[in-house]
Structure formats: structure tokens, C-alpha cells
Amino acid sequence: MKLINTLLLATFVFFIQFFLVDLLSLKMIRPDFLVIYIFYISLVFGKAPGILIGFSLGLLSDLSGVGSLFGLAPLTLSVTAYLSGLLHGKYERILPYVFHSAWISIIASHFLLISYFRFQTIFLDDPIAFWMRWFMSFSYTMLFFLIVQFFYPVKEASHAEIT
Amino acid sequence: MRNLYLSLLKNKDHLIFLIAITLSLSLLLKNDSPDVLLIRGKFSDYFSFISSPFSWAKSMIQLQEETQYLRDINIQLTLEMEAMLMAQRENNDLRDLLGFKQNSNLQLLAARVVNMGSSSNLSSITLDVGSNHGVKVNQAVLVPEGVVGKTVVVGKTSTVVQIIKDGNYRLSVKILPSGNAGILQFITNDYCEVRELQKNSTISVGDKVVTSGFSRIYPENLPVGEVVEIADDRGSFQTIAKVLIKADLGSLLNVFIVLEEIDEAN
Q1: Are the beta carbons of A75 and B21 separated by less than 8 Å?
Q2: Burial A46-77 (b: 16+ CB within 10 A, else e)
Q3: Is the complex ipTM more than 0.90?
Q4: For residue A22, is it within any domain?
């Protein structure tokens, strides 16, 4: 039942990303709901389920249309799932500020990986423009992350299974 | 054997991670493989079918606004056409006198944008036409304002277009009126850079940027944008021209695919 719910939610998140992302696009920068979902899945269920779902959702995302760099989404989502899985059940074992810094860094590194692959030329030519672009895509998704956090805090997700 | 199984079970997280990374990297390295393109083409058909009702609803919403705009343009164009017909007649007479061949035309296929991908950075669009309509890989995609991109994956009823804003997109262009040729690549927002321009090039702000015609994909003289800034590349013999793309890629509804170039003279 838990598996069916997770897969249904994954399908729902994918379709939200597929259909709604255009409406929320700001100057070509779009929120990434998939990374939010994968982060929570890895935090609740651990690394393996997170990587499997992350890879599959990434593949579907790239199959739904990408100009070049086909395979980048599965790569970045798998890495994010693995890193987020390291925080699984750790909230009560590490200092809260370390925990929160860690998950914010994981999301930031997800966008850094995407930006580095996608905008390598900008990185070499104009590093400031590159970092600005990274920061904008990261902070735009973080805005939605904070909204989700309001309903389902990371703290709760982290020890969802150990309690 | 049992020990191996137990050790695999113990390290299953790392193993799954390694497999996922290996698969992702092999997909990244096989971007242009025919098998990968075939699979992408098939899925592009499915996804364009799923998103077609949404794109239909979206276009209906914008229809009224577009009709009003087209009415205004229609009146303007009718007046302009009269003047152009006169100019064409005069042009033909002069061409005949000079013995020049007539300009070639483009065979265009109209297509509707059904999807703009789901990645966090816009790099592609999906169109509702495919190989059944005569579309092939590596054909230019335009809007009246200028070049939008090229076809990269073609399914039976859908096509994925790599747009000018993809980081790996390059376009051979020339700057008019000087005719200096260079390579255009995307930088950020609506701006691109034209590189490989000679330092002694006579380029000014406001010059038009068009396709050079050196590439087999893009016919010559398709509009691309306008020069907004010129800078010298220190330590090289290049000048870099910053170009504003005219086409609004964020709100594309309809585009044209250049199927082939028709030479009217033949």
C-alpha cells in the first residue's frame, strides 16, 4: 500500500512538473518539483528507494523533452537521492543547524550540477552570470520547498520511520 | 557465494547508486546514438499526445487576443503589400536586366507547440508534427521574428526541437551590412554572443544578425537578432558581438519548420 501510494504520488508530481511548470516559469527559470519529491522520498525511505524513483523520474523527465544532455536529469536526481538518503533518520542524532545546512547544501548542489552541465560556456566566459543563474534556479525552487516544508517539515520527514 | 550475496545485500544502496550513475552517464555519452534517438522519438509521440488537450486549451485562451492582433496586422499588411507588389515588379525588371537568378524560397510546415519540456531550464520544445508530415532531424525551426532552433528528435507525429537557448546550441551567422561571419551561442536571458569575428570587423550596435548559409541546416539570411553590444576579446584576434534574440521563446505557440529550400528558377 505504501509502495502504491509512493508511486501514485510520483506520477502526480511528474504530471504537475510536466503541465504546470510553464505557468510558473519566470524569465525561463522554472521550479523543479521532482527534486523536492525525491528529497522527501530519500529522507523518509532511505537511499535505495530514493535513487530508484529519482532515476526513473529523471528518465521520464528527459523523455518528455530535452534538447541536449539527455540523461542529465536521472544523473542529478540519483545523486540528490543518494545524498539525501544519508540524512535518513539522522535528525535526532546530529545538531539541528548541521542537519538543515546539509539538506540545503544538497539541493544547492543539485542545481549546481545541472547548471554546470547546461551552462558550461557561461561558466567559462562569465562566472558571475553563471552563479547568478544557479542562484536564481536554486532559490526559485527553494521558495516552493519552503511552502512544502510548511505542511510537511523536513524534521518530521527525517524520523518518519524510526519513531 | 553466500558471502558475496550478503555483501551485495549489505551494500545495496551503494550498488544501486553506482548502477544509476553508470546508466545516466552512458545515456549522456550516447546522446546522438540512433537507438537513443529512436526511443526518444517514440516517447515524444506519447508525451505530445498526452499534452495535446492542454496545449489546445491554452491556445483557445489566447485565440481572442491573437485574432484582434491579426486583424490589426492584416490591415497594415494589405497596405504594405500594395507597395511591395510595385517594388517586386520593379525588382524583377531590374533582375531581368542584370540577368540574375530569382531568390530561392522556403518550403515551410506550420506546427503547434504542444509542450516545453519539464526540465528546470527551458532547452527544448515539442511540436505536433513528425515524420508523417515530412519532418526530418536537423531541419531549421522559425517564427516570423527569427530562428528558434533545429529539430533533434523526430517521432511519427511529434518532434523535439533544440532551441537557441540550449547551452550546446551553435548557429553560423553573419552580421549585416558588413557580412562578417561568426558562431552564435546562447549566454543568458534573451542574449547570445557571436564569436570568431575578426577584430577589424566593421560592426555597429543595431546591425542585423542573419544566418550565414554555411550550414546545411539553415538557409541563408534567416533573421536571428540584433547587435546590442560589441566587445574585444582580450588576448585574441576576435571581436565578440552581443546579440538580442528577437523571437520570444518563452511564449511560443506556433512555429514553422523549413522542410526544404525551393529554387524557383529551376
Answers
A1: yes
A2: bbbbbbbbbbbbbbbbbbbbbbbbbbbbbbbb
A3: no
A4: no
For residue A86, is it within any domain?
Answer: yes
| Domain of A118, in residue numbers | 2-16+30-155
B147-171 tens-digit pLDDT: 888 998 888 888 888 888 887 888 8
| Chain A neighbors of B36, CB-CB under 8 A | 70
Left if phi > 0, otherwise alpha if psi is -120 to 50, otherwise beta: which for A145?
alpha
Whether residue A7 is contained in a domain is answered as: yes
pTM metric for this prediction: 0.74
Mutate to test the interface with A, among B119, B240, B251 (most CBs of A within 10 A): B119
The domains located in chain B, with CATH, are 34-164+250-262 (2.40.10.340), 170-246 (2.40.10.350)
> Could you give the CA distance from residue A5 to residue B185 in angstroms, rounded to a whole number?
44
Q: Do A21 and B54 touch (CB under 8 A)?
A: no
Q: Which residue of A has its CA nearest to B52?
A: A19
Residue A105 belongs to a domain: yes
Q: Give pLDDT tens digits for B108-148.
A: 888 888 888 777 677 788 888 888 888 888 898 988 788 88
